[in-house]
Design goal:
mainly alpha, 89% helix
């Protein structure tokens, strides 16, 4: 149950980071360091999501 909750929260976090990235890219002079930081955080969230989704899938197969 906690895994589904974490997956839901991480999807939300990923969406917020996507929004932040879009906002930064639309600025007249986007900050390259900020863009790189947002992308790095998005990748970390995505990797964590994949790990949790895999865990959830294997739990479902074992049940």
């Amino acid at each position: 149950m906690i895994t589904r909750y974490l997956i839901h929260r991480l999807h939300g976090r990923h969406a917020l980071l996507e929004d932040a990235l879009g906002e930064e890219m639309r600025r007249p002079k986007p900050d390259d360091r900020r863009i790189a930081d947002i992308k790095k955080r998005k990748l970390l969230v995505r990797d964590r999501l994949r790990a949790l989704e895999l865990k959830l899938a294997t739990q479902g197969l074992a049940a």
